[in-house]
Amino acid sequence: MTDMDKLQNVRIEVDVNQGDNSVSPDALGVDSKQRMKNKDQSGYAAIKPEFLDLNHVPKVAAHLPASTSEELTAMATGTEKRKSDSDETPQMPYKKKMKLKGRNKKRPRGNRPDVGTKLCTKIVHGLECPFGEKCQYSHNIAEYVASKPADISDRCYIYETFGRCPYGIMCMFSKHHVDERYKNVVNESLYETTSKKKTVLNQLDSRGDLQTRLWKKKYNFSKANVILKCYEEKMKKSGGADKHVSDVDEAGDHVHADCDVGQCDKTSHRTDSDDSNKGDPSIIGDRADNDKSLSMNEEASSNGNIVGVAVSTNMPDNEDMPSIATLNVQHAGPVTDEDTIKLRPLEKKKLNFADKLYLAPLTTVGNLPFRRLCKTFGADITCSEMAMSVPLLKGQQSEWAILRRHESEDIFGVQLCGSYTDTMTRCGQLLQENVDMDFVDINCGCPLDLVFKKGDGCALMGRTGRFEKLVGCMTEVLDVPLTVKMRTGIYESKSIAHNLIPRLRDWGVALVTLHGRSREQRYTRLADWTYIDRCAKAAAPMPVFGNGDILSYEDANQRRKETSVAGMMIGRGALIKPWIFTEIKEQRHWDISSSERLDMLRSFTNYGLEQWGSDQRGVATTRRFLLEWLSFLYRYIPVGVLERLPQRINEKPPYYIGRDDLETLMASGNCADWVKISEILLGPVPDDFEFLPKHKANAYQ
User: What is d(CA 392, CA 384) in angstroms, rounded to the nearest whole number?
Assistant: First the structure.
């Protein structure tokens, strides 16, 4: 079945009498004249009259949970009854019809299939299962095939791209690469070429040594711990000490009170031979040479161009130290000095942020497939989703998956969220030593209550002392630039970013990205670019990127011209129209067709199948993230439909009909129509499929 055939099967019905979930216009107060007036009102986009849908009938989405569907219908129609205080008087006056707004907090998640119904991966690859009959997974391929849903298509993207599909018979496109005997076919020549090239970096192998050391708390964090102790001594000397900068054992290594933070690495190697870290379960590793031999090495290496020095460490303590001339010098090849000589700020890796287009780190929707798509449209800088510091230190697979980087992401950063200096510093060391990245970003702008109440995200802006310690220690432990993403402030009535940003510059931050809204404000107001300009001028010469309400190249040009920002960070604008990066670079409005947008969605699903898998679980995960993205993508209004350009991000359109059926389907705010779009690309949804959008308004359109 072609895509056009699928489209005919999911064609939108706009007739009043069609649709099982439709509600009469009278019950909903549908007024065509009022809707005509709306297009000229503030907050509504101007749509050409010939595209207006004056007969639109709102209806409840088909794939909502039953309880949610009834609740939303009652709220929208005003038929929801008030709760009675007693069972004897159940009949209460009807509530007033409410405007659907807010967030659906308890959203259903897809149920994972039973373990017994899943096929053992050893059997899939034609290997012998070491558990035999005791294996909790199924070994009966014929039984699995009989219960498996029909294949989505006869073409497997993973097999076509890499020459081998690792999911074998479990793949939802298995017809392409599985023969009659259920054997997985391999394109040897293509697979030999692609297997040598690593396209996705920063993958944490669950069986690898790194995760095991993190699980057992045996990772050596001595470098981070010495930096923490050194910074603590510095703060004590300056009179602004905090006794709880870190949780390192107070009986730990002796750090001179007059040492500077920049000298921390010079003493870090001494701690390996000390007994100071016995009480810290996270520091278990090989110990270095004792202080005596180490001091001799330092003295020898500082006199002349001696590459390696071999010193006998068995001399008695009361024996005089031999001179340099009497030492047994051996040239053992090149030896790096990274552990003994700290990089100065001028020697650290530098990035040129000027005039770059920065795709904002976006929770949930800013996944790797979406970032890959934005790179094809011209995004310059990408960043991972927000990763929490504590789960990373614990080696949680789900949190490490956020750090994955595609080879196309040439400037890639990792965003960390946390407020404790010790955990963030150790996490910085962990990333520095194990993750391929170009910079680390501290999340100081997350407004979520769950994050804010822990002291993370926006709360860090109100804790300047802790923020200074955190930044100071992380700049020492990292060899890549440290950036900060923040808001104007916590409260709408009090902006504090202009006071904090110059201090961040002095602390060593390389870049600040400023969202022109406060935590309290959220999206109830437009971004304050006048204030962003004020902060950018106060931060000079440190670059500041502005963020907020950019949806066209004209918006970007205006902000770049009227402010002192060094570049643009784009978040919602990229979710609504990922091709905004192309528009900005080519300085044009792209009247993208519905078929081009469908091809874009197909690329996303292909990237998703490559990322999350082409089996049932992988397809379900790809579908879920596709639906989450469509909750933003439908807000785009085609250029040919608008009366005036450009589209404003705070303007919503009245109901309109597109220039073809697919464009009309893509313009729908009803999540049931998003499910139909997913069925074009990923096949029919299961009978028990449920999807509740994040916002209530999208469940009833």
Answer: 14
**Residue 415, φ and ψ in degrees, nearest 5:** -95, 125
Q: Looking at residue 121, what is its pLDDT?
A: 86
3-state secondary structure of 113: coil
C-alpha span between 547 and 544 (Å, rounded):
10
Per residue in 519-545, pLDDT (tens digit) is: 988 787 899 999 999 999 999 999 999
| pTM: predicted TM-score of the whole model, two decimal places | 0.78
Which tokens sit at 549? 């309400």
Q: How many CB atoms lie within 10 A of CB 323?
A: 8
Question: Is 3.20.20.70 the CATH classification of the domain at 345-361+380-577?
Answer: yes
- Tell me if residue 446 is catalytic: yes
Residue type at 229? K
Report the distance separating Cα 238 and Cα 115, nearest Å: 59
| CA triple 544-545-551, angle to 5 deg | 160
The candidate with the shortest Cα–Cα distance to 298, out of 287, 288, 284, is 288
**CA–CA gap between residue 699 and residue 701 (Å, rounded):** 7
Given the structure tokens 């009959």, which residue do they identify?
133
Helices 464-477, 421-434: inter-axial angle, 10-degree rounding: 20
Q: How far apart are CA 676 and CA 672, in angstroms?
A: 7
Distance between CA atoms of 5 and 79, rounded to whole angstroms?
39
Question: What are the CA-CA distances from residue 248 to residues 221, 270, 279, 419 (Å)?
Answer: 11, 16, 9, 16
| Domain residue limits, the chain | 3-84+94-99+609-699, 115-197, 292-342, 345-361+380-577
**In contact, 523 and 559? CB cutoff 8 Å:** no
Give the pLDDT confidence of 342-375 residue by residue, as tens digits: 555 556 788 899 999 999 999 989 999 999 999 9
Q: In the structure encoding, which two tokens stand for residue 579, read together? A: 């091709």
Question: 77: which DSSP letter?
Answer: H
Residue spans of alpha helices (H) in 435-552:
449-452, 464-477, 497-507, 529-539
Bridging pattern class, strands 439-444 and 412-417: parallel
pLDDT one-digit tens code per residue, 478-500: 999 999 999 999 998 899 999 99
pLDDT higher than 50, residue 445: yes
Q: Which of 165, 417, 446, 473 is catalytic?
A: 446
Any bridge partners for residue 441, and if so which?
415, 483
**Contacts for 227 with CB less than 8 Å, ≥ 6 apart:** 261, 264, 265, 268, 425, 473, 476, 477
